[in-house]
Amino acid sequence: MTSWLRNYYNIVLRSVVVVSVIALGSSHSSDKRCTSPLAASCEECLHRGPECAWCFQKRFLEGADVSERCDSPAQLLLKGCGEEFIENPQAKVEVNTTQSGSQVVPRDVSILLRPGSEASFLVEVQQLDQYPVDLYYLVDVSASMRHTLDRLKTVGMTLSHHMKQHSSDFRVGFGSFVDKPVSPYINMHPSKIMNPCSDYEVNCRPAHGFIHVLPITENMTQFKQVIQQQRISGNMDTPEGGFDAMLQAAVCQDIGWRPEAKHLLLMMTDQPSHLALDSRLAGIVVPHDGRCHLVDSTYSQAANMEHPTMGQLAEKLLESSIYSIFAVDVEQYKWYEDLVQFLPGTYLGKLLPKAANLTNIVLDAYKKLLSDVGVEVGIEDSEAHRFWVNITALCPNGSTVTGNGKCSNVKPSQKVVFNVTVGMRECPPQRSPGGAVGEVAAVVRPVGFNETVSVRIRPACECGCGGGGSCGDGPEPPSCSSAVDGCREEEGGAVCGGRGACVCGTCVCDRSNLGIVHGKYCERDDFSCPYSKGVVCGGHGQCVSGYCLCRPGWTGDSCSCPTSTDGCVDPTGLVCSGVGECVCGECVCHNPRRWGPFCETCPTCSNSCQSQWSCVECHLSNGVGRAHAQRCNRTCTALVAFVDDITELIRGEFCQYQSREQCFFRFHVQLGSQGPHLRISRHGECMSSWRYFHTFLSVFLLTVVLGLGILAVTRLLLRAQCWPWSGRVSQRFDDNRKDYAPTTGEKTITYRRDCLPDNPMEMHVHVPKMPLNDAWP
Q1: pLDDT computed for residue 737 by the predictor
Q2: CA distance 442 to 337
Q3: How many domains are contained in the chain?
Q4: 104 shares a domain with 176
C-alpha cells in the first residue's frame, strides 16, 4: 500500500464523523412506496424506506388526506412544502476518537440508521512484531492416542524452545478429553466405568468429557511433570467429544488466558468429533448453553447437555480471541477439513505417527494464523435479523477482498483496512418505557486479536418534526356549526369547488382515485391539468383549478417548455443558425425545407436561388439606388442590399448568378417576416473575350474529335465482322467452280453481298431439281 493511501486511511479513521450513505430504490419505486394511505403518521412514513420523507408544515395540501404528507423530498418540495418543514433523517456515523488501541482503530463507533438505509465506516488492524503467546494443549487421551501422548512427553520442551524465537513471553497449559461418560459412548458396567481397559489388563483412567489439568503457566518443568503423569482412557464408539471440550477451554476463566496475549488452542486427536444432536443417542436433549461448567477442574455437565453446534463454538472462539490448531490423524484429515472452514482463525495440520511433526505443525500454524487478518461482526442475537453486514478488506499489497474477506501474508507492523457496511432492514420494537426504540449493540472483532470495536446502532424510527414535536397533523377540529361562507372561493361559487365538504368553515376535500385534491377551496389537484411525458404539468408546476402554474424557467400549458434558448444555440453561437426561431426549447425553421436541431440542413435550398435570378438580374442591369430599384418592384422584393464581400457577412449557403456577359455574382436569400431579403455582391467574376472565344473553340474542337473517333471505331467493327467470313466462303466456292459442273438435274443460285466496296462476295448454291412425277412429302 502506498504511503499516501495509508495517510488517507489514517485521516479518515481519526476524523470525528465518517459517513457513507447509499439510498436504496429509484425515484419511480420511491413514489410508489411513499405515497400510500397506510403512511398516516410521520413514523409510519419513515418506516417505508430511506427515500420517504414527511412534511410537517401546517396547512400543507389543505384539505387533502394526511397520508399525502408522505412522499419523496423532491415531490414534497414540488407540492409546496418548505424544505425546513421536511422530516428526513439521514444515516450517519460518529467515531469516538478519545479511545485508542495499539492494534485496532477506532474502538468506539456510533451509527444512526433508518429502515432501508446503510452506513459505512473504516476499521484499521495492525499486527505487532512480538506478542505474548498462550498455548493450551487439548489432547485426546483415548487408548488409540497412547503413542502420541508418549511422544508429547518428549516434544513439549522442544516446542517451547522454538516458540520462544517468535515470542519473548511464551506460556503453556494442558487439558484432556475423551467422550461423554454415558451409554452408548462408554461401557456402563461398574468394572468398566472405573477402568475401561480392564479386558486388556491395562490400568486406564475413567472416561471424561473434559478435565482441565494445568492452567497456563511459564513453568515448563511443571508442564513436563504433568505430561509424564497422564494416563490413557477408553470409550466404545469411534467419535470423541473434542468440540465439547474445546468450548469449555474457550469460555472458562480457569484456563488462565491472558488478555494481552495471543491465544492458541492446540487440539490433538486421531478420531472425528461428535456434533450437535449426536447426544440424543444417549437421551440428552438439553441444548448447550455456551457457558463454563467446571467443577473441581472437571466438566460437570458432560452427561446433561448436548454437544455444542458449530455456530456456538465459532462464536465462543471468536469472543475469546482464540486461534484453533487442529493436529489430527492423516486418516481423519478430510473429515476435519470440511468442518474447520466454519471456525474463524483455524489451522489444520496432519499429525504423523507418534506426533513426529508436532513442533512443525504448531510453528507453521502460528506463522500462518498471524499472517491472516480478518474481522467478524456480531450483532446481538435478538436483533441480528433486522440488520445486514458487508465487509471489504483493503490489503497491504493493494488488493481488495469483498464480502467477509481477509488478507493473507500480512507481515508484522503492516496495516489492514476494513470497510464495514451496516444496513438496517426494519426498526426494532419499542423497548424503553417512553416508547422510543433503544440502541442495538454490535461488535467488530478482528480474528485472534484481543482488541475489538464497539458499535452502537441507533435506529431513526421516531420523528422529531423540527424539534417541536408537532408533525403537522394538528388537533382535532372543535365542535362548531356549519359556516359555508368560508368554504367558497368567490361569492356565489360552489362550496369547496364541488369537490369537498365544508366542516366548521374549512374544506375537507374528497378523495379521488385519479389523484390528490387539496387547497383551501379544494381547487388544486394533480390530475386535471395537461400532462407532459406522463407527468402532470410536466413535473415543473402545480395544477390549480385545471391550469398549470409553472415554476420559473418553464412555460406552456403543461409547463413543458423551457424559457431559455440555450438548447437552440448552434456551435457557432447563433440561435437556430439564424434561419429559425426557438420555440419550447427547439428550433422551428422559417423555411420548411430546412431541418435539423439547429435548422442547419437544407438539401433543396439551392432551388430558391433560381427563383431569385430575375430579381438579381433586374437590379444588376438597372444599377444601384432607390430610383433604379423601384423598376424591379414588379419582379421581386425591394429589400435588396449590395455588399462588398458577402462571405464575410453571411454564414451558410450562397447562390450564384451568371449574367449575359459571363459574369458570376454571389447573392444570399434570407426569408423574413416581410418577405425575402437579398444581399448581392457588388463585384462579379467576369470572363474576357479571348477567354470566352477560347472556351467556345475548345468545346467545338472537342465535339469534332469525338465524332470522328466514333465513326472510325464503327468502321473497324464492321470490317472485323465481314472480311474473315466473306474470304472463307468466296474461296470455297471458287474451288467448287473449278472442280464441279452442274448436271441437267440441278439448278445454280448465286447470292451476292458487298461487305466492302472493293471486295464483293458471291455464294453459289446448287439445288437438285425435283422430277415432275415426284410427290410432295
Answers
A1: 46
A2: 30
A3: 6
A4: no
CA distances from 348 to 352, 369, 370, 655 (A): 13, 11, 14, 90
Same-domain pairing of 713 and 638? no
Quote the DSSP letter at residue 142.
B
- pLDDT computed for residue 541 by the predictor: 83
Q: What is the CATH number of the domain that holds 303?
A: 3.40.50.410
What sign has the CA pseudo-torsion 608, 609, 610, 616? positive
Backbone angles phi, psi at 725, to 5 degrees: -70, -45
Domain boundary among 686, 721, 756: 686
**Is 3 part of any domain?**
no
Q: Which residues contact 549 (CB under 8 A, 6 or more apart)?
A: 537, 541, 542, 543
Pairing of strands 262-269, 322-329: parallel
End-of-domain residue from the set 371, 388, 418:
371
Reported as type and span, the H/E element at residue 747 is strand 746-756
What are 568-577's contacts with CB under 8 Å, separation 24+? 568/598, 569/598, 570/597, 570/598, 570/600, 572/651, 574/598, 574/651, 577/651, 577/652
Per-residue pLDDT at 99: 80
* Long-range contacts of the stretch 743-746 (C-beta < 8 A, 24+): 745/769
- 416 & 387 share domain: yes
CATH number for the domain that contains residue 43: 3.30.1680.10
Please report the pLDDT score of residue 726 as a whole number. Answer: 42
Residues 536 and 398 in one domain: no
3-class SS of residue 315: helix
**Helices and strands of the chain, counted as H and E runs:** 15, 41
Is 98 contained in some domain? yes
Contact yes or no for 282/341 (Cβ under 8 A): no
Nearest to 428 by CA among 390, 357, 379, 475: 379
Report the CATH number that the domain containing residue 665 is assigned in CATH.
Answer: 4.10.1240.30
For residue 296, being part of any structural domain is answered with yes
The answer to whether position 601 is within a domain reads no
Q: What share of the chain is helix, strand, coil (3-state, %, to 5)?
A: 30, 30, 40
Enclosing domain of residue 758: 689-768
Residue with cell 472556351: 695
Q: Which of 653, 578, 654, 649 is nearest to 616 (CA)?
A: 654
Residues of the chain with pLDDT under 50: 1-30, 433-435, 474-478, 651-652, 673, 723-740, 751-754, 756-757, 772-777
Taking alpha carbons only, the member of 111, 106, 108 closest to residue 123 is 106
What's the CATH number where 435 sits?
2.60.40.1510
Q: How many CA atoms lie within 13 A of 750 on its CB side?
A: 9
Contact 420, 384 (CB under 8 A): no
Phi, psi of 420 (to 5 degrees): -100, 120
268 & 366 share domain: yes
* Torsions phi, psi for 691 (to 5 deg): -65, -40
DSSP E strands, 178-297 = 211-217, 262-269, 294-295
Same domain, 163 and 291: yes
Q: Could you tell me which of 625, 594, 609 has the C-alpha nearest to residue 665?
A: 609
Cell numbers placing 249:
477451554
| 224 lies in the same domain as 319 | yes
Query: H-helix or E-strand containing 614?
Result: helix 613-622
Assess whether 50 and 177 both reside in one domain. Answer: no
Query: E-strand spans in 56-91?
Result: 70-71, 86-87
| Paired residues of 118 in beta bridges | 423
